[in-house]
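agent: user wants the full assembly modeled, not chains individually. Plan: 1) parse entity lines 2) check alphabet per entity 3) run joint structure prediction 4) return tokens. Steps 1-2 passed, three entities, 630 residues total. Proceeding.
--- entities ---
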Amino acid sequence: MLIYVVDLLGVAVFAATGALAAGRKSLDFLGVLVIAAVTAIGGGTIRDLLLDRHPVFWIADPTYLVVILAATAMTLFYVRFYRPPEKALLVADALGLALFTISGARIAEDFHLGGIIEVFMGTVTGAAGGVLRDVLSADIPIILRSGEIYATAALAGAVVYVLLQRIGVDSTVSVLAGMGVTAGLRLAAIRWGLTLPVVRLSDRKGDLSG
Amino acid sequence: MLIYVVDLLGVAVFAATGALAAGRKSLDFLGVLVIAAVTAIGGGTIRDLLLDRHPVFWIADPTYLVVILAATAMTLFYVRFYRPPEKALLVADALGLALFTISGARIAEDFHLGGIIEVFMGTVTGAAGGVLRDVLSADIPIILRSGEIYATAALAGAVVYVLLQRIGVDSTVSVLAGMGVTAGLRLAAIRWGLTLPVVRLSDRKGDLSG
Amino acid sequence: MLIYVVDLLGVAVFAATGALAAGRKSLDFLGVLVIAAVTAIGGGTIRDLLLDRHPVFWIADPTYLVVILAATAMTLFYVRFYRPPEKALLVADALGLALFTISGARIAEDFHLGGIIEVFMGTVTGAAGGVLRDVLSADIPIILRSGEIYATAALAGAVVYVLLQRIGVDSTVSVLAGMGVTAGLRLAAIRWGLTLPVVRLSDRKGDLSG
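--- prediction returned ---
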């Protein structure tokens, strides 16, 4: 029960950050709602499709869609009168990322597909919603922006969780450690402006795409 | 049989509008064909994948692909000599949107997943093809352009259809009412230049996406 | 066994070209890795999802992900010191395209869905990875760039393969002929700068998308 409430809270936070991100563009309500929904459930949906896990989580339980609708409406109502509570939302977003990443890795665990797939599915669950949001907005996706520590934080937390599980650490401890690494890395990156080094090719003639 | 023919006509119309939309870019024939196909069957494909409805409708019956090929070739041939019949195509596109939306909602009905999912799948079936087309063309998707009443028309028609079905209205009446709302809203929006109000955030500092 | 090794080589080559293509943008390592992975396994993943073929090939065998990781790291290491071996990579990419296209068509064959779907799945397996890569990079996808003979080469090889199989030609001959057509067309296009004629609409007022 607690897990379910926390999960819905995570969806609400992601929907709210999605709705705020949509504020860069001039959208109508449906447009904002689509961006909010894609941000909130996009990662989990890709995970479920890849794992052939049906019904997809929000189809099995449409409460998720209701929560997204409510969170989007409340966000738009709130920012009409007040400044968005930036710091609180950044912290909430980091916690949502941590929550989704580890829950995604745990879901993959049930399929017994090995540690690499678990790490992969955790990272996708946490970070892919933001990628879909950016693709729809015709932006460069967040994980492709130079040095932004976002998907990397998800990846690191998922690796820690999977490794701890493999060596037999208690499940609750693994979950908390994995979430701590993801949330901690993301918050540290925001707090101290940390970025990853950018790859520079010595010669871009190697581009074969055109 | 009639339903099948109408369905293929809807695919042909969507393919034609997709091919015309592709005319903004300088594409070769295969590029135009890809855009036409994505516009015509993209929404239904996403619906089938989300619902785990296999084989996907156009895999089960490749006639859809043949119709797309023919419609694209005919469109390109036609516009080489004549101006596209703009008004007829806008009306046909609105009817196609109405048809796909309600048929999408009806397909979801068979899965007994509740009204919210039915509305969602109807809207996706009708409007997602246009979103995919725009994402592939690196455009801002149609449903995210300010105030355009397109997906909103699909959504409204799907809601009307699902509500009428819920209160026990005859199926044929529900279908016609739902399609009427979608097509009517879309055509009214084109005819009188109606748009939805655009959401403006009081403070775009709330953007957490970067 | 030989087929498996060749398949992994194809993935490695596609990952390398994806990593080099990512060099146009300033990305961190994870960003380059995502682009490399999407290029290498995106087409096959879409094929498996559409065919409901689970587990998806790289979930069934995570060796693919390990190969992508190694190929990306080696590519980035290599281009730090040397110019990318452009010609060798262009040839390798053409061979990879041929290999993936025909293997995709062969996989679809097992589902007995008819020649059109086999051609479609072959083309998607070969060319869709490049499309996803470009969508993520917010570029105009390769198959939509004017006249580039890439997906067209895949399509032509898949058609040849499927036709030869239909008329009862020996399987090995069909495979080699199909791959020869795809690789030959692609290499000829590169070598002599061949492009396809671009479609021009007489009147772009026909655009219904807005």
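agent: reporting back. Strands of chain A lie at 27-28, 198-199. The first strand of chain A starts at residue 27 and ends at 28.
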